[in-house]
Request: fold
Amino acid sequence: MDSTTNALNWFEIPALDIERSKKFYETIFDIEMTLMDMGDEKLALFPFEPGTGKASGAIATGEYHKPSDKGTFVYLNANPTMDNVLAKVEAAGGKILQPKFSIGENGFVAYIQDTEGSVVGIHSMR
Reply:
């Protein structure tokens, strides 16, 4: 890996109930996610365009996917502003753990807990 390579290639947010988790993320981000079976695992894919070099990921169920508020931490893109996303979190069944706060010239961050118990960061420039 060098400075021209994305440090993040793919991420998976653990879930117990793929449909419930899919609905949560679709609701707060106003997106459609695609379901996919991969062996014994089920995935709900965040929107992406293959071949662009942009990192993406999925919600995943399976033997090694256990929701937790500890461990690897991902930040999901809520540009241009996270206000609309945060306004939907609790109604969609999640919790806002840390409201929006400034990280200086790098924008803003908030921490949410999804319907499965996983904690993720939300990032936007405004």
User: Anything to note?
Assistant: The mean pLDDT is 93. The first strand starts at residue 10 and ends at 14. Helices lie at 18-29, 83-89. The radius of gyration is 14 Å.
